[in-house]
């Protein structure tokens, strides 16, 4: 038997175990994990080890881990439907309620506004910055912005400078967003501390990395009693998104190799 035949035989026998190891380490079931084990067993083994390291160091419950990963995959900058389903299934299996899952999605959907805020900051810079804009604003504009800020802070708490800038450009949206983003805070399926950890997770996704928001929500999470170990648990879980490159591409590679007769 040739070296190639021996390698193929070894990979074929190892693939099912490595696929199961990936599934167990990630806490989800998905057919592409077995494909990764077949197509790239070395990668499958190493990523399973990485996922186990993240899991073993994690101080959050398995239910909380599934809910954090649900938020990451349902965020507007990612929107991975397969993984949303996988982590909803995982969360339900760990005892999550429909109310808890709805709150996760309510919290996650606020990320859409993060495309608006940088735009208003550019407009503010064109007016000389926030302080200059506030000083030079017409009385009517300043009064409207201050009303929008007061209405927002009554529902969501103190504004960051970026949000104050937004009140001068889009006061109606600011007020409406305060109501929309306040929905998950009007119920208590999840603790306030855990809600802040969800915000940290979605603010730090690699497609986004919103540092100002991350600092705000880490500070709030700590004020609510979150430990560094809990925050580090969230930070490590974000790295697990990397396997989705292989979950997406290797089934396609396998199909195209077969189509090409290779």
TrEMBL record:
Residues 171-251 form the Carboxymuconolactone decarboxylase-like domain. GO terms for molecular function: peroxiredoxin activity. It comes from the Bacteria. Pfam families: CMD. InterPro entries: AhpD-like, CMD-like. This is Carboxymuconolactone decarboxylase family protein.
